[in-house]
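Students often ask why we bother predicting the structure of a whole assembly rather than each chain alone. The short answer is interfaces. A chain on its own may look different once its partners are present, and contacts between molecules only exist in the joint model. In this exercise we take two input lines together and write out one structure for the complete complex. Read the inputs first and try to guess which parts will touch.
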Amino acid sequence: SYELTQPPSVSVSPGQTARITCSGDALPKKYAYWYQQKSGQAPVLVIYEDSKRPSGIPERFSGSSSGTMATLTISGAQVEDEADYYCYSTDSSGNHNVFGTGTKVTVL
Amino acid sequence: EVQLVESGGGLVQPGGSLRLSCAASGFTFSSYWMHWVRQAPGKGLVWVSRINSDGSSTSYADSVKGRFTISRDNAKNTLYLQMNSLRAEDTAVYYCARDLSSGGDHDYWGQGTLVTVSS
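Now the answer. The structure tokens for the assembled complex follow.
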């Protein structure tokens, strides 16, 4: 079955840039989406269609995609950005959605 | 205000069945695809199933195909997940989520309902 691979953890100091990668064979043809999940809460969409930001999401969150890799960038990370982040996409058929393995972002 | 409220979770024995419901309000339910996503304790998010707006098309993760059935009642603004032949590895919080554009942008999620499969 299709898989999206992320690094288990990323750690940055406040104000630094955090980059989270997501690797998947279908990403050249399928959009990537990014979700933030804080402890005990439902996920929140932070990036859709590779690079678009929903209303209400801070400008420090940005996304890009090239080839088989999508990237979520948090420019000037804040303590409140500490969370688990998941990429999300579909397989090449478009019939099965899949979440990435998840990345724990620590800001300290 | 858009709201999604799951119910129906609980403790069930291996091999048993459970039906989850997701009551939607604050939007035109019949216009949106809907999904179920689960999360085992301390683990990551896993996509489970999706259904199109009129219920004519469904899709399932390999891990639940043949055991779970997604459905909807647009007259009652409710999404369902019938879960049969439950296994210990199905233990998780189950979320329903709205699909904004029939892609992967889930803009609203429920609070989740916990399903525990154990003897």
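Check your guess against this: The beta strands of chain A are 9-12, 18-23, 33-37, 44-47, 61-66, 69-74, 83-90, 97-99, 103-107.
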